[in-house]
Amino acid sequence: MTGLKEWHAIAASHAPHELREALNKAAARWVTTDAEPAPPEYDRLLRYQTVEVAGIAARYERWVWDGITGSTLIFVSADVTHLADESLRELVEGAGYDVGSDTTRTERGGRVFFNFGFEA
Fold first, then answer.
1. CB environment 10-47: b (16+ within 10 A), e (fewer)
2. What is the pLDDT of residues 62-90, one digit of tens each?
3. pTM of the model
4. How far from chain centre, in Å, is Cα 73?
5. Cys-Cys crosslink for 80: which of 19, 75, 86, 113, Cβ 3.0 to 4.6 Å?
6. What is the reported pLDDT for 34?
């Protein structure tokens, strides 16, 4: 994923018909493997996969944003909206995820975003 500042710089320096190719090249530079540490100056998705948490379908994402690495589980709201924050945390921990001490929960667009595992 190309950072916002880099995207603006690319957009400003390329003609419209060249923009798609330039953005694809920039994005390809920042595709990593687990063995390659993420540079803190770039915001991006490191990896993602479809998972099941206690029988509930979710998308797991590992990301870096502004030098902080974290994880997000994204659920369909109807599947978990009835759960209190602590109950959702227990559900995620029970599935084997290392949640850590701080978590956030956001609901938007029919999805619940449960963020955890923050590392500076």
1. beeeeeeeeeeebbeebeeebeeeeeeebeeebbbebe
2. 988 877 899 999 999 999 999 999 999 99
3. 0.65
4. 8
5. 75
6. 47
Q: What share of the chain is helix, strand, coil (3-state, %, to 5)?
A: 30, 35, 30
Q: What is the pLDDT of residue 6?
A: 59
Cβ-based neighbours of 50, under 8 Å, separated by 6 or more: 57, 58, 59, 60
* DSSP letter, residue 67: T
End-to-end CA distance of the chain: 20
Domains along the chain with CATH numbers = 1-31 (no CATH), 44-119 (3.30.200)
- Which residues lie closer than 8 Å to 118 by C-beta, 6 or more apart? 68, 69, 70, 100, 102
Max distance between CA atoms of the chain, in angstroms, equals 51
Joined together, the tokens standing for residue 4 give 């916002």
